[in-house]
Structure formats: structure tokens, C-alpha cells
Write a structure and sequence with these properties.
It is a single chain. By secondary structure, this protein is of the alpha+beta class. Helix content is 48%, strand content 24%. It contains four helices and five strands. Strands 1-2-3-4-5 form a five-stranded mixed beta sheet.
């Protein structure tokens, strides 16, 4: 039984080092996400086209990003959310899969939320896209 004790100590030490390294890498990534969000938000709100205004992005701990858009000429009451989902979902997922800007998010399996609001700031729809969707 005594011979197993040193092995247990080595395994425990190894796991501690690996977890500490993993945690420091995660903290570094979280800080990077926060900084990216801050830089993006400095340029917002921004009209993307005649219908869509990008309001900004929010980092959600531990590993998620929330994008917020306003459809400036639309009221939530007239939106068919099923059709809205069907028309936007494929493009959102495709962009995440192929965009160079999204590479690090894919590598870290970041969850992405895309919320769309109407001209009166009422929520129309929120898309939740996980690593299972874009891998």
C-alpha cells in the first residue's frame, strides 16, 4: 500500500498542474473575449443596412458571446418567428463555420447568442448557437 502513495502524489501533482494551466488559459481567453467585446462596442451602434442596426456585443462568463441587433423598421407583433428562424439560422451557422474571425470562438467552443429586437426594443427572437451546431 505504501508504494501506491508516491504514485498518488505524482498523479495529484500532475492533475493540479494541468488544471492550473487549463484555468490560466481559460482566464486568458475570457480576458481576450472581454477586450474584443469592448473594442466592438466602441463602434456601436452601427447601421449594417437600411433595416438592421448592430447594437453591440456582450461577453457572458464563462464562454459565451451575446450579439444584439435591432430591426429598425419592424414591429415584433408582425414577425412570424418560425419563418424568421428558418430564414436566418442557416446563414448564422454557416458564417460561424467558415468565418476567419470566428476561428478562435470555434476552437474554444464558445456559445453564441444572437438577439433581434424590434423598433420599440421588444425582443423578436434569440438564436442560441452552440459548438454542436457549428462543428
Amino acid at each position: 500500500m505504501m508504494r501506491l502513495k508516491p504514485v498518488t502524489v505524482y498523479i495529484g501533482t500532475f492533475l493540479f498542474i494541468m488544471l492550473s494551466f487549463g484555468c490560466s488559459q481559460q482566464v486568458k481567453y475570457e480576458n481576450e473575449l472581454e477586450n474584443v467585446c469592448k473594442n466592438i462596442n466602441a463602434k456601436c451602434p452601427k447601421m449594417l443596412d437600411s433595416e438592421t442596426r448592430f447594437e453591440g456585443v456582450q461577453y457572458l462568463a464563462p464562454n459565451a458571446i451575446h450579439y444584439k441587433y435591432t430591426l429598425v423598421n419592424m414591429g415584433a407583433a408582425v414577425v412570424d418567428t418560425h419563418a424568421f428562424n428558418n430564414s436566418l439560422w442557416p446563414g448564422l451557422v454557416s458564417n460561424i463555420k467558415v468565418s476567419h474571425d470566428m476561428k478562435k470562438l470555434r476552437e474554444h467552443e464558445t456559445t453564441l447568442f444572437y438577439s433581434y429586437f424590434d423598433k420599440s426594443s421588444r425582443l423578436i427572437y434569440t438564436f442560441t448557437i452552440t459548438a454542436n451546431d457549428y462543428k
